[in-house]
Amino acid sequence: MDESSATRDKMYQAYLEFFEVAERKRRWNIFDDIPWNKLDPALNSELKATRIETYCAEEFYLPDYTGGGVQLSRQIFGAAWFQACWSYEESKHGLVFREYLTRSGMRSASQFAQFEDAVFASKWKLPFTTRRQMACYGALQEAATFLAYKAQKDRAIREGDKVLEAIFTFVSRDEAAHAGFYRAMARIELEADRVGTIADLAFVVARFQMPGEGLIPRYQERLRESGAGISARNFVEHALFPTLKMLGTTRAELKTASLPPLQTITESLLAPEK
Ligand SMILES: [Fe+2]
Ligand SMILES: [Fe+2]
């Protein structure tokens, strides 16, 4: 895709704004900001371990996400530098979940070695082929991930789990910021080519799946049984619709690009909420 200099400038500005907020307000530190001394074995449970392990597995495909993202964005400074910063931020998510599972004693080092082997045996592939489609996908996927982690933060507060509360506070805030950046990118694409971007957005919405789908063994069952998933309704109301609103578009406009009925979208989505 050949980008105009106006589009490149907008992407640069969007990245600069993202990075400034990240550096000034959002940075957190695994070693100092998580109250590890508050780990309480009485709060351990196999369901909780499965929940965190499922998120951990999804975050563990980072090398594949990074490889795919950089490959699509390397010709545009703002987009490529975002990928680099995004990778650093995401790397902390898999790491903090891993540390939580092992420091709490819910998983041993040898269990983790097996887990790593199982995860890395499959490879995530880009679900869409252009940077514009991946911006649409990123806006939705990061928003869905934010919703899942925010629900886990609320749950940790209810259960009095101070460590998980801190972890999900930081990771959910990162995911919200990622969703915001991808929305900004999709908006820039819309300004450059409204018809083409709406068609891409409709295409992506109709095929949306979380990255763990088809990769993590028993993904849907794990989400359902452990309470790690979010409902399709939650996704539509709190990720899809706000994204459309922020992009300045509507379901009606997406239908002009042959968006399938919403039921088709929600059926292929996420596990019901627990
Ligand atoms: Fe993440
Ligand atoms: Fe993210």
Write a structural description:
This protein is mostly helical. It has one domain (5-20, 43-267): Ribonucleotide Reductase, subunit A (Orthogonal Bundle), CATH 1.10.620. The protein has twelve helices and no strands. It has helices at residues 5-26, 46-59, 62-73, 77-103, 109-120, 131-159, 162-192, 194-206, 219-226, 232-247, 251-255, 262-267. Helix 4 (77-103) packs antiparallel against helix 7 (162-192), helix 6 (131-159) packs across helix 8 (194-206) and helix 6 crosses helix 10. The longest helix has 31 residues, at 162-192. The N and C termini lie far apart (43 Å). Mean pLDDT is 91; it is low at 266-274. Bound molecules: fe (ii) ion (2 copies). Residues 90, 142, 145, 174-175, 178 line the site of one fe (ii) ion.
Defining traits:
single chain; 274 residues; Ribonucleotide Reductase, subunit A; binds fe (ii) ion
Give the cofactors and ligands. fe (ii) ion
- Number of spatially distinct domains: 1
Largest sheet: none
Q: Approximately how much beta-strand content do the residues carry?
A: under 5%
Helix proportion of residues, in percent? over 70%
Structural class: mainly alpha
Q: How many extended strands?
A: 0
According to CATH, what is the class? Mainly Alpha
The number of helical elements comes to 12
Radius of gyration: 19 Å
Q: Low-confidence stretches at least 5 residues in length (pLDDT < 50)?
A: 266-274
Q: What's the architecture, going by CATH? A: Orthogonal Bundle
**Elements, N to C (H/E):** HHHHHHHHHHHH
Name the CATH superfamily classification: Ribonucleotide Reductase, subunit A
- C-alpha geometry: globular
Please tell me the overall pLDDT: 91
Distance N to C terminus? 43 Å
CATH topology title? Ribonucleotide Reductase, subunit A
